[in-house]
Amino acid sequence: MKSNLQFDFLVDKENNTLTIIREFNAERQLVWDCYTKQELLDQWFAPKPFTTKTKSMDFKNDGHWHYAMIDPDGTEYWGYTKYHDVNPIDYYRTIDAFCDSEGTINQELPTANWKVTFNDKGENATVTTVVTYDSLNDLETVINMGMKEGMISTLEKLDELLETLKK
User: Fold this and answer.
1) In Å, how far are 55, 62, 69, 88, 127 from 85, measured between CA atoms?
2) 139 phi and psi, to 5 degrees?
3) Using one digit for the tens of pLDDT, what is the confidence trace for 14-43?
4) How far apart are CA 134 and CA 143, in angstroms?
5) Name one Pfam family in it (predicted).
6) CATH code for the domain in which residue 146 is found
7) Which of 11, 34, 69, 98 is surrounded by the fewest CB atoms within 10 Å?
């Protein structure tokens, strides 16, 4: 990753939100594709050394993404994302939750509303992700689970993928 690329990870405990602003050395359409196409998501959407596999995905309003992050020992950590308010290459909103391999939501872990916005920054693109939790406890739970470190590592994998796709 180029060290001069913007990365902000902001915690707002009054509003139970995380705001992640990340710049990428690629044009907006390519970054959008990496966030919204299964074959690309599976190549980057998990912190190192985890890998990702998609069970099912339908990126559209009222669509979903059911996926697992897999650790090196083969343990699967499942997630379920419900898409809504999709506005191609500008933004989309989701409800994101932990689940099992069948897609049953884990009520013991936090669910969050995400808004992911894509903008141009010169020849680069920025992605602003605002994650809103129901409570301060939920926000603190994901922070303690390593959300910041996980996001840094995951987005570095996206940097690496973007370099290969631009060639």
Assistant:
1) 22, 8, 25, 10, 16
2) -60, -50
3) 999 999 999 999 999 999 999 999 999 999
4) 14
5) AHSA1
6) 3.30.530.20
7) 11
